[in-house]
Amino acid sequence: MEIRPISPSFAAAPQIGPEDVPGIAAAGYKTIVCNRPDGEADNQPRAAQIAEAARAAGLEYRFLPIRPGRMTPEAVARFDEVLKTCKGPILAYCRTGNRSSSVWALARARLLSPQAILAATAQAGYDLEGLKPLLDEAFGAPVGSTEPVRYDVLVIGGGAGGIAAAASLLKRRQGLKLAIVEPSEHHDYQPGWTLVGAGLLDRADTVRRTADILPKGAKWIRGAVASFDPDTSEVTLEDGARFGYRVLLVAPGLKLDWDAVPGLRETLGEHGVTSNYRGELAPYTRDLVRGMRSGRALFTAPPLPYKCPAAPHKALFMSADTWRRAGVLDEIDVTFCTAAERFFHVPAFAPALDGYARRYGVNIACGHTLVAVDGPARRATLQTGDGAQVEHPFDMLHVSPPQAPLDVVAGSPLADAQGWVDVDPGTLRHTRFDNIFGLGDGCSTPNAKTAAAVRKQAPVAAVNALATLDGTALPARYDGYGSCPVTVERGKVVLAEFGYDGAPLPSLPTWLIDGTRPSHLAWMLKERLFPPIYWQGMFKGREYLAGPQMTFRPVAQD
């Protein structure tokens, strides 16, 4: 729990849980206000749970949800009424505290000067400079401009794609006015979660503070984008703040659509249902696998596209290897159900992976899509290619969930027909807006959505963004490179590297690592080298074996 006092009678906080309420009461707060709608995130406690805890602690609780980008006058007026009528001090929370601090600022804008409000919120760690035009207008002072703060480059998303692209940009051009819009206080090394699920890595080793990994020279705007206006080169954040740009880099990621499978969300983390796609569940995967001595284990893979297309296979192989080492594999019925027509979608690497599936005695059901889960009954419902539904009992179920574009992207002018950021697959520039680029899991490029793909995309996006700033032709091209280091057993990895057409694109000589065969050296790369390449390479603008393909060398601008 992180309480950030803004005034003697008011504080804001990121998402709290019921377990935090006694501490809030002990700190002297009398009222808790929730500004976050239910259902915004997978691990978000519901407002009713916190309301019950507040009542038990003798605190007043108000539910005033503000949806991203809906900082309406009505919402501000309701919040102002709470400030006037509820017992203080008041603690308000949302996802990051930004919405709560912003609605407080707007509710106080007729009483306090914009300078005083911005100073108070900045002291609490909330940079609300994007609200200054609204604060000026509400205060009635003829100061400042109604124009939003503008950046040379504005990056949407502080995941692997956004940070790597920002680092590449700032490495090439120091002094660039660049900001990254990202709500999360922490960043996850998601490729490590399969190793956490296998019991080979601690969950804590995959998490770092966002503030510690942002490239030097990048400004962090702690918020989430609510809408895009490419015609005016502006974005609006969920708290109503507006920011302008000369070039926009969109790296928003995608959403894990747990609700697309009825019954799945409700049973995650219990009844033997788990997923390495959520970092906090990976230790549950580890415990399930270690504790299983007999029964039925079911692994599922959804329809493409989804990030890390080999993640379901990794969970399968590492679980089967654990059972083999424990001498219980023959007592466990292992089934892999995939929506695809074949076990692994890239032909060059399929023979090695098919061989391991046979070695572990895996039952493979292609064309089978998970459509429902009954956790308490331990039954999964799958739909076959001809539309029939079959039930599959399980003692352990590892789910790779359906994945989709973020709603804020799918409903924006940037989206293609499927909802992804619509970019040219080579230049990564938007197909309709010349000063917008997309990369990472949320864009329309038909490559494998992996961190390795981002490592190759980021320099391309950076070089081409600088060319756009300079008014020159785009020199860099992305070849569709993606990599799936498939852990097939402890100590061996099939290092699948390939491009748009599925043809192998090895980074190292094949005499050193033959990606079509399992290799201990590839395992060493994944376990020992890839994490530092991620943290100290990608995020520092160091492009080891990842420099962009250039159609020509641009002339440096004066």
From TrEMBL:
Source organism of the structure: Rhodovulum adriaticum
Name of the featured protein: Sulfide:quinone oxidoreductase
GO molecular function: FAD binding; hydrolase activity; sulfide:quinone oxidoreductase activity
NCBIfam families reported in the protein's UniProt record: TIGR01244 family sulfur transferase
Pfam families: BLH_phosphatase, Pyr_redox_2
GO biological process: sulfide oxidation, using sulfide:quinone oxidoreductase
Origin superkingdom: Bacteria
Domain Rhodanese: 89-130
